[in-house]
Amino acid sequence: MEHAVMELDGSNPILREFGSEQSLLSKPDGSATFVQGDTSMLAGVYGPAEVKVNKEIYDRATLEVLIQPKAGMPSVRERTREQCVRETCEAALLSTLHPRSSLTLVLQVVHDDGSLLACCLNAACMALMDAGLPMSRLFCGVTCAIDPESRIITDPTAQQEKESRALMTFAIDSKEHNILMSSTKGSFSVKEMQRCIAVSQKASERIFQFYRDSVKRRYSKVL
Fold it and tell me: Which residue positions does the secretion signal occupy (predicted)?
């Protein structure tokens, strides 16, 4: 498993240690794990495959995203996260190259210690890359929490999330560092949101570099 340790100086947003492994499942067309601190996700991509007639879209692929909790049945919380991940993937995938077909992304929560939606997005991107699906850009997820003293915490743990007054997760694209999707909770000002976006964009550079290094190392082993 590839690992990256974030520098803890003031100029760089602090991210927990993270790692990823691709192609570890045999049945999906692409798979990946993504670990951020003690938060861990497993992702599998199936397709392009035949699509049910009632779900068929004539000019592009139909994308379905399923998030399985660690235990029990999916709840409203999972459905909301599924929508966030699907919107992000649809913005990045060149789905018009596979019209009238179906793509399914299954995300399994292995362990949740905060920043779960960001970890879902990172696992999803690594799995889509592993499946070799055509994409216009890569994407990553960054979560920010605002604590009661108005400090911004990047990649917060579950405990830090619980103590925060606001929580924001952004999906960021690799080309222009634009925001593809945002999910927010709690009370915050416009200025605070802008600060969180800027911090997340800065943090995303480190994650995209990690993607590149992971792929480079993986293919240098193959050659």
Answer: none
Distance CA 215, CA 209 (A): 10
Measured from the Cβ of residue 216, the count of other Cβ atoms closer than 10 Å reads 11
Long-range contacts of 11-19 (CB under 8 A, 24+ apart): 12/202, 12/203, 12/206, 13/142, 13/154, 13/155, 13/199, 13/200, 13/202, 13/203, 13/206, 14/153, 14/154, 14/155, 15/154, 15/155, 15/203, 15/206, 15/207, 16/155, 16/157, 18/122, 18/207, 18/210
User: Is the Cα dihedral 16, 43, 21, 216 positive or negative?
Assistant: negative
Cα separation of 36 and 53, whole Å? 39
Q: Judge whether residue 5 has pLDDT over 50.
A: no
For the stretch 91-118, pLDDT in tens is 998 876 677 777 889 999 999 999 999 9
pTM of the model: 0.89
